[in-house]
Amino acid sequence: xxxxxxxxxxxxxxxxxxxxxxxxxxxxxxxxxxxxxxxxxxxxxxxxxxxxxxxxxxxxxxxxxxxxxxxxxxxxxxxxxxxxxxxxxxxxxxxxxxxxxxxxxxxxxxxxxxxxxxxxxxxxxxxxxxxxxxxxxxxxxxxxxxxxxxxxxxxxxxxxxxxxxxxxxxxxxxxxxxxxxxxxxxxxxxxxxxxxxxxxxxxxxxxxxxxxxxxxxxxxxxxxxxxxxxxxxxxxxxxxxxxxxxxxxxxxxxxxxxxxxxxxxxxxxxxxxxxxxxxxxxxxxxxxxxxxxxxxxxxxxxxxxxxxxxxxxxxxxxxxxxxxxxxxxxxxx
Amino acid sequence: xxxxxxxxxxxxxxxxxxxxxxxxxxxxxxxxxxxxxxxxxxxxxxxxxxxxxxxxxxxxxxxxxxxxxxxxxxxxxxxxxxxxxxxxxxxxxxxxxxxxxxxxxxxxxxxxxxxxxxxxxxxxxxxxxxxxxxxxxxxxxxxxxxxxxxxxxxxxxxxxxxxxxxxxxxxxxxxxxxxxxxxxxxxxxxxxxxxxxxxxxxxxxxxxxxxxxxxxxxxxxxxxxxxxxxxxxxxxxxxxxxxxxxxxxxxxxxxxxxxxxxxxxxxxxxxxxxxxxxxxxxxxxxxxxxxxxxxxxxxxxxxxxxxxxxxxxxxxxxxxxxxxxxxxxxxxxxxxxxxxxxxxxxxxxxxxxxxxxxxxxxxxxxxxxxxxxxxxxxxxxxxxxxxxxxxxxxxxxxxxxxxxxxxxxxxxxxxxxxxxxxxxxxxxxxxxxxxxxxxxxxxxxxxxxxxxxxxx
Lengths: 333, 456
Hints:
The complex is a heterodimer of chains A (333) and B (456).
Chain A: H1 4-33, H2 40-50, H3 54-71, H4 73-82, H5 84-106, H6 111-137, E1 141-142, E2 145-146, H7 156-180, H8 183-214, H9 216-223, H10 227-231, H11 233-250, H12 256-276, E3 279-281, E4 285-286, H13 294-321
Antiparallel strand pairs in A: 1-2, 3-4
Helix pairs in contact in A: 1-3, 1-6, 1-7, 3-4, 5-6, 6-7, 7-8, 7-12, 8-9, 8-11, 8-12, 11-12
Chain B: H1 5-44, H2 47-80, H3 83-117, H4 124-153, E1 158-161, E2 164-167, H5 170-174, H6 179-208, H7 212-247, H8 249-256, E3 267-274, E4 279-286, H9 289-295, H10 316-345, H11 353-361, H12 365-379, E5 384-386, E6 390-391, H13 401-432
Antiparallel strand pairs in B: 1-2, 3-4, 5-6
């Protein structure tokens, strides 16, 4: 029982994180693309395309954080203080992004809240990249507590990850616009998506080379035999997916670009998992080192197995209810 | 100046959670009201219910979003600023918070979309169902978070091994000794907070001669609710107090500024607790009234603050005054609700303008009572973060004081900005008034005519 419960929970938390990254990824991406819109009508159209979904999407972030506390409290208690500044700044960005959705509806002059929407999205996305990079680099731990410095996370590598996440979310946002809007906004989204796709590929390439070069255990994970024999398809599939995404944008496809962007994210995420598994607090603590008491994990697991399908059910229902394109000049209220 | 990281983290958590609690204590009650309106509309077909509901849904949306974003902050702050607490109590508090996310947050977030955007896309029964789902979600959220918070006050069902708490009995953990009282108290407080806000808005419109149907509906429903729940809150509060006396006697001692347990307790209408001298100055009190309330015996004895060393006592003045503020506001709420009910019974509610003026100006009473109550109970728990098990000072994260001071300043800045804007927009919505007709749906195109369940 002791060894497989943490594995199950790692899979659940991992899924929650991926769900968050994809779902809130396109919400945040829309915010990042705001500055490229031409007028308030276009911005309204962009916001309307995600308005019915963003709150539910953001809830996966709460599940990810709380889930870490539930299943791996020792990791939660180390990671959060270690990444204190990016976590808090991310939360502040999300505060502005979240209220901007509602407040810009009521403001007479929308510039302020449009700015808040964009800056909040940018800050939140960038900080999530900082958190990712800071985590991959590894945290200094002694006797189960964080003993490193306040700015340990601030390195060129983590800043690169921050930029990469921003570009990635913008890609998700752009392809979402291709799928869910029409007219100028969708056309611009298509052009932006092509540029962003190249950007994402570039970042993925740099991170893929940098990480093994900078961190020996990652190098050994990928390039040692027999690992390399199993793992080489991952970069290959990634490149094929990117090529497919590019073609779908050129060919005027509407849904395939968004699906390709999601696939790219999943593949990148898979690469990260391969690099770090089973370390939840690299380089020293595994999922087994940081797991909660089995009684807690089981108590939560029962409810999770019951409730997650229900959540998926009504989430799908809402996406289906608000299916179809958001046309220029439309409003739900 | 030497900054104390414990104090700074306490200030930051206190600030962010006080800000946050304003919104759920409003939206839990308001969502229940909106659900009631939608069900009534479904049952009676009366359009006035729809118009009142549409009006309040817009206000609900502005409050709810502020509650959501400030709530996410708390779920991460347990880790960023209170990592040792998370390590100690994670096995217990983690799953309780996890259930809150799975059973409540997703439910309210998802169905709120239908309430905000889906009126023209779903059949009326599904719309009413969505309103009920949101109300259920907010109440479920209160259930789980209060279970977790109550465990911190009256820990049960666990054992401590190697400096970490381990669960033994989940029923005992969730339904710990103080939970039922605190849950009932908070839930009722939330209904009252929304009730007095609706009452105020209804009164405001009656005074202005605006929206007569809707205003009278709001007024009557609010008075009907508060006239029952305000007195009930006194009873729940009393029971809660008796329970607290049994499990957290020093908190009660601080609330009553009761120093000497060898004498019966006086009820201090006003006093200035002097912690150094361990006595109360400028005291105006009703002799032995505290003993009467707490022990049902004017000569009954209960523990005083002096029965524990000073380092085990909460900040007396804070707890004492917060409690009194809550009592005073609660007293007003009972009086206002019962008097309103009397006027309603006599058919003089709409014409007694002085009463309407007062209730219109006191929309804020629920919020004040809630914050005062929470300060009482949480400050009253000090110096413990888990009563008698873990001290607050031992629970903080290894983050430098200067860093916490910076983030505290940032939170204050950001929250005050957001809160001011939110209040401003709610005020504008109140000034705009109740929509006369459902707005023309601007969503043109084929998918408007697609009803739920129809084939495209």
